[in-house]
UniProtKB/TrEMBL annotation:
Belongs to the RNA methyltransferase RsmE family. Residues 81-250 form the Ribosomal RNA small subunit methyltransferase E methyltransferase domain. It is found in: Cytoplasm. This is Ribosomal RNA small subunit methyltransferase E. The lineage of its organism: Bacteria, Bacillati, Actinomycetota, Actinomycetes, Micrococcales. GO terms for biological process: rRNA base methylation. It catalyses: uridine(1498) in 16S rRNA + S-adenosyl-L-methionine = N(3)-methyluridine(1498) in 16S rRNA + S-adenosyl-L-homocysteine + H(+). Gene3D superfamilies: 3.40.1280.10, Hypothetical PUA domain-like, domain 1 (2.40.240.20). It holds the Pfam family Methyltrans_RNA.
Length: 258
C-alpha cells in the first residue's frame, strides 16, 4: 500500500536529502499527528506540489509536529506534454467534481472558463472565493491520489481569452481539443503534440463546455484559432465527467499509464 501524502510549504524541501531529519509542522503536521494519529515507525511521503517527494519514516511525534527521517528523495520530472483541463463554469458543484476527478487522473493544470452558456458567473469577490475553492479542491485531490505535483489553477477566462490561449498553445507546438458531440473526429484520432515545441514541453488543452453545451460561435472561434473538435464517444457525458474521461484516454495515448 502506498504511503499517505502530506504537502510541505513551497521551498521547504530544498536541500533536504536521504538520511536527513525533517519536521512536518503547521497544519499538515497537526493533521497527521492529531487527526490521523500517525505514530513512530509509520511511512509517510512529504511532497512540495512541484514534483519533489520525500519518502520518510516517522521517528517521534510531539506538539511541534512529526519528526521524520528521510529514506529517499525523489524528483519526478515534468511531463513532455502537459494535460490542461479547460472546464466551463457549471452550476452546483459539477465543475468542482470535474477538476477533482481530473486531478486524480493526472491533469497538470485546470483553467476555469466563463462560457456563453455558463449559468454561474465569476465576478468580483465571488471570483476570488470560487477560485480559492478550486485551489483547495485540486490540493486535496492531489493528496488523495498520492501525487507529488498539484495542478496549477489559472484565472478564469472568457471566450476571447480562451481563444487567445488556444492560439498561443498551438503556435508553441501544442494542441487544443474541444469536446463536441457533433464532431466527426474521435479523440482517439486527434493529432497530439510530440512533447517538444520551439520552447520545450508543450500543452494539450482539453476544452469542456457547460451543461447547455458549447455554442456554434464558440466552436467556430476555437477551431479557427487552431483547436480540433473531437468526439469523446458514443454517449453524451455530463460536464462533470467528460473532462476526466477525456484526460484518462489521452494519458493512455501519451504513455503515462503504460
Amino acid at each position: 500500500m502506498s504511503a499517505p501524502v502530506f504537502l510541505a510549504e513551497p521551498g521547504t524541501l530544498a536541500g533536504v536529502g536521504t538520511g536527513d531529519a525533517y519536521l512536518l509542522d503547521g497544519t499538515e503536521g497537526r493533521h497527521a499527528g492529531v487527526v490521523q494519529r500517525r505514530g513512530a515507525g509509520e511511512r509517510i511521503d512529504v511532497v512540495d506540489g512541484a514534483g519533489v517527494r520525500l519518502r520518510t519514516v516517522v521517528e517521534t511525534v510531539d506538539p511541534q509536529g512529526l519528526h521524520l527521517r528521510v529514506q529517499e528523495r525523489v524528483e519526478e520530472p515534468a511531463p513532455a506534454v502537459a494535460l490542461v483541463l479547460v472546464q466551463a463554469l457549471a452550476k452546483g458543484d459539477r465543475d468542482e467534481l470535474a477538476i477533482e476527478a481530473a486531478t486524480e487522473v493526472g491533469a497538470d493544470g485546470v483553467l476555469p472558463w466563463q462560457a456563453d452558456r455558463s449559468i454561474v458567473v465569476w465576478r468580483g469577490d465571488r471570483a476570488a472565493k470560487s477560485r480559492a475553492r478550486w485551489l483547495a479542491t485540486v490540493r486535496t485531490a492531489a493528496k488523495q491520489s498520492r501525487r507529488a505535483c498539484v495542478p496549477q489553477v489559472g484565472v478564469a477566462l472568457d471566450t476571447k481569452g480562451l481563444v487567445d490561449r488556444v492560439s498561443a498553445c498551438v503556435a508553441a507546438g501544442g494542441a487544443a481539443l474541444v469536446l463536441h458531440e457533433e464532431a466527426t473526429t474521435s479523440i482517439a484520432e486527434a493529432v497530439l503534440p510530440t512533447g517538444v515545441g520551439p520552447g520545450g514541453p508543450v500543452e494539450c488543452l482539453v476544452v469542456v463546455g457547460p451543461e447547455g453545451g458549447i455554442t456554434e460561435r464558440e466552436t467556430e472561434q476555437l477551431t479557427q484559432a487552431g483547436a480540433q473538435a473531437v468526439r469523446l464517444g458514443p454517449h453524451v457525458l455530463r460536464t462533470s465527467t467528460a473532462g476526466p474521461v477525456a484526460l484518462a484516454l489521452l494519458a493512455a495515448r501519451l504513455g503515462r499509464w503504460a
